[in-house]
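$ ./design --mode recover --in tokens.txt
reading tokens...
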């Protein structure tokens, strides 16, 4: 059904039926076909917009103003390229009870009027705020759009209610306030909307994970002495883009003495025999992201390296075994070791090493699971959440370490792991 004929308040549960958890999760091809149902992108748009409308109705906000590209995509199902991610050059407004309005970068607005029929043509507008101050606020663009937004909200009858904003330049926030609007945090409202994934979102997340399965097979075949960390990153990046990735956000490649402490990057270090090496592949398919670590040894492994891997796997498996609807994140974090138990002075220094985080259009969504926050501020695990769990264990040799990560979909009774490259035991690449 076209959005122009739909009711303004959309019930997300009417748009996307619950997944039949008795069936395997699909890892679909990228082509549209007529002989089986694949991802229904218009259904996904209606679901996402419906979730945002519901979250807005439950809040005390009159509207959501989004400059975060992930929230813009969630509300409007539009994307103009990864180059825009840090530019703050597009924005979208969702008034309570209204339709999304999108201000876009130049000709993209004209393109969307032609090719995005799920948005009203008059709601696809050209706009420009200043591109992180490179156009001075004194020029007046921010003032113009702030007054335009205030006028839209007055017409909608919600100008006296707070406006929730996710990301903003201070100069634009000041102009919104001068236009008579009360600006408050809207990111929490959008994160609430995004935390439960539809069957179409889950299918895209599973497809993204399947692409990384293949990238790890490639790494397993090419990880040998003489290859550099950067060579592995290049090979995996090419593989992912050839198979449909729209953004290889980062690939961590860490080997040998660089494994402990974890530097979260890659270099041109050359792989050597006996190295322990771990990788994290962060990429997206149709916007839906992966965070997927695997550890390998090159040719052979020492007892210390094997022991670190076993402990890392045990910590991860204990967490996965707990996941089901109704469980709170403090229970999951509590089975992970304290920072001091694996060589760190405090929990903040160890943040991100024993870690869980939601996955969706962003790399980090709800829930966040960590001893830093979860023990005192737990969140409830819900059916339809998709998140990653990652553990880290330094080896007794003082420099090697193991890092493993699994992505899970929360079902009605437990969870499904969707990261399938084998990791039950330490893989030895090109074994001697």
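writing sequence...
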């Amino acid at each position: 059904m076209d959005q122009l004929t739909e009711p303004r308040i959309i019930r997300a549960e009417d748009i996307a039926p619950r997944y039949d958890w008795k069936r395997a999760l699909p890892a679909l091809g990228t082509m549209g076909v007529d002989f089986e149902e694949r991802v229904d992108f218009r259904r996904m748009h209606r679901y996402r917009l419906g979730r945002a409308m519901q979250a807005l109705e439950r809040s005390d906000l009159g509207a959501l103003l989004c400059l975060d590209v992930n929230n813009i995509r969630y509300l409007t199902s539009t994307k103009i390229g990864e180059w825009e991610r840090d530019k703050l050059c597009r924005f979208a407004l969702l008034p309570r009870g209204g339709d999304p309005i999108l201000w876009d970068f130049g000709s993209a607005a004209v393109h969307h009027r032609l090719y995005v029929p799920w948005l009203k043509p008059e709601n696809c507008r050209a706009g420009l705020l200043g591109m992180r101050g490179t156009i001075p606020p004194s020029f007046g663009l921010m003032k113009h759009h702030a007054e335009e937004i205030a006028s839209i909200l007055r017409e909608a009858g919600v100008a006296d209610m707070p406006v929730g904003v996710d990301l903003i330049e201070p100069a634009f926030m000041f102009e919104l306030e001068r236009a008579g609007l009360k600006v408050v945090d809207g990111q929490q409202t959008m994160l609430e909307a995004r935390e439960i994934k539809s069957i179409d979102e889950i299918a895209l997340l599973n497809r993204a994970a399947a692409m990384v399965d293949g990238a790890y097979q490639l790494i397993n075949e090419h990880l040998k002495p003489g290859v550099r960390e950067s060579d592995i990153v290049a090979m995996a990046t090419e593989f992912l883009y050839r198979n449909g990735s729209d953004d290889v956000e980062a690939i961590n490649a860490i080997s040998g003495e660089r494994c402990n402490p974890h530097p979260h990057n890659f270099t041109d270090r050359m792989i050597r025999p006996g190295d322990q090496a771990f990788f994290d592949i962060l990429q997206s398919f149709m916007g839906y992201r992966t965070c997927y670590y695997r550890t390998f040894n090159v040719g052979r492994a020492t007892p210390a390296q094997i022991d670190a891997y076993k402990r890392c796997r045990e910590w991860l498996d204990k967490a996965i075994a707990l996941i089901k609807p109704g469980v709170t994140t403090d229970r999951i974090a509590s089975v992970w070791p304290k920072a001091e138990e694996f060589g760190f002075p405090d929990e903040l220094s160890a943040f991100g090493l024993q870690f869980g985080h939601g996955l969706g259009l962003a790399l980090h969504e709800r829930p966040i699971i960590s001893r830093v926050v979860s023990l005192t501020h737990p969140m409830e695990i819900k059916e339809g959440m998709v998140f990653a769990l990652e553990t880290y264990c330094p080896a007794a040799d003082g420099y090697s370490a193991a890092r493993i990560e699994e992505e899970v979909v929360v079902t009605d009774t437990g969870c499904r792991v969707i990261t399938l490259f084998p990791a039950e035991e330490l893989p030895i690449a090109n074994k001697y």
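exit 0
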